[in-house]
Amino acid sequence: MSAPAARVTIKDVAAAAGVSKGAVSLAFNHRPGLSEGTRARIFAVAQEMGWAPNSSARSLSTQKTDTIGLALCRPARLLGLEPFYMEFISGIESVLAEQSCSLLLRLVSSRREEIDVQRSWWRERQVAGSVLVDFDRDDPRIEPLKELGIPAVAVAHPDLTGGLPAVWTDDAHAMTEAVRYLAALGHRRIARVGGPVALGHSAIREQAFRRTLESLGLDGSVQMATGFAGEDGARATRSLLLHCDRPTAIVYDNDIMAVAGLGVAAEMGITVPDDLSLLAWDDSQLCRLTHPTLSAMSHDVHGFGTAVARALFDVVEGRDLASRPMSTPSLTPRASTAAPRVRP
């Protein structure tokens, strides 16, 4: 039996390319100090010899990793159904693929567990930095993670992030546009089905909703759901439609709840959009698959994830990062909104 082929090492690659081991390390860690011609020769020799740097060894030598973290305080079942996070994560992954990096995703049951997970990731050098999402109005993660020193980007309005670099959308402006649109159609009783009351972006939308109704002299009500699942949206919608002065239009905090609301309207014999207009948020494919199709506040969620990942790399590399506003969600009217058949 022939002896197994010797394993190719960084020393072998350096010798074949006519450079030092340090030059090979510089090339594969994308660091300055080499001409483009030398860098290209090293890559070509390494490919021909079938050699690639060991990621664990590279992490130890550079004190960095090729992984970023994302902890989500969501049930696993809901995450698989929610279009927003599927699109958002795909946007992050598109940037990580460019950088030959990976995403470490962890589902947690509480903010306390998330803090513990972030501490473990950072102390064990499992991640180079983290994306933080779903900020509460007084978020308990801010101070512990600042003390830890982990590079992080917050996906939230800067008012909620305690000075952490933020990438955000102007939900208040979008909600104002949504309410004004429904009012222009002739609706005078407008309701909102929001997510969990503690979430900062839910609070921002609620404040804008109430402020806009007041400025227009309209009646409105808010039904906060316990989560973002379809059953939460259905329960909240049913409660609103059983009211003696039921609304003629409802704005939802996500697509899943809006689809569930459409089902409740059908169940109760209420015609959309003649008797009730429905307006979703984020505008996933779900909105175009229902009958009638759902009007929505459209948002480039994939692009949002891309921007967040790029911002995190800026933070990891030590570049200054001011908070970055993304484009505001904009109205996409479809068949689920119209002037009420009977004016309120």
Automatic annotation (TrEMBL):
<dbReference type="InterPro" id="IPR046335">
    <property type="entry name" value="LacI/GalR-like_sensor"/>
</dbReference>
<dbReference type="InterPro" id="IPR000843">
    <property type="entry name" value="HTH_LacI"/>
</dbReference>
<feature type="domain" description="HTH lacI-type">
    <location>
        <begin position="8"/>
        <end position="62"/>
    </location>
</feature>
<protein>
    <submittedName>
        <fullName>Catabolite control protein A</fullName>
    </submittedName>
</protein>
<dbReference type="InterPro" id="IPR028082">
    <property type="entry name" value="Peripla_BP_I"/>
</dbReference>
<dbReference type="GO" id="GO:0000976">
    <property type="term" value="F:transcription cis-regulatory region binding"/>
</dbReference>
<keyword id="KW-0238">DNA-binding</keyword>
<keyword id="KW-0804">Transcription</keyword>
<dbReference type="Pfam" id="PF00356">
    <property type="entry name" value="LacI"/>
</dbReference>
<keyword id="KW-0805">Transcription regulation</keyword>
<dbReference type="InterPro" id="IPR010982">
    <property type="entry name" value="Lambda_DNA-bd_dom_sf"/>
</dbReference>
<dbReference type="Pfam" id="PF13377">
    <property type="entry name" value="Peripla_BP_3"/>
</dbReference>
<feature type="region of interest" description="Disordered">
    <location>
        <begin position="323"/>
        <end position="344"/>
    </location>
</feature>
<feature type="compositionally biased region" description="Polar residues">
    <location>
        <begin position="325"/>
        <end position="335"/>
    </location>
</feature>
<dbReference type="GO" id="GO:0003700">
    <property type="term" value="F:DNA-binding transcription factor activity"/>
</dbReference>
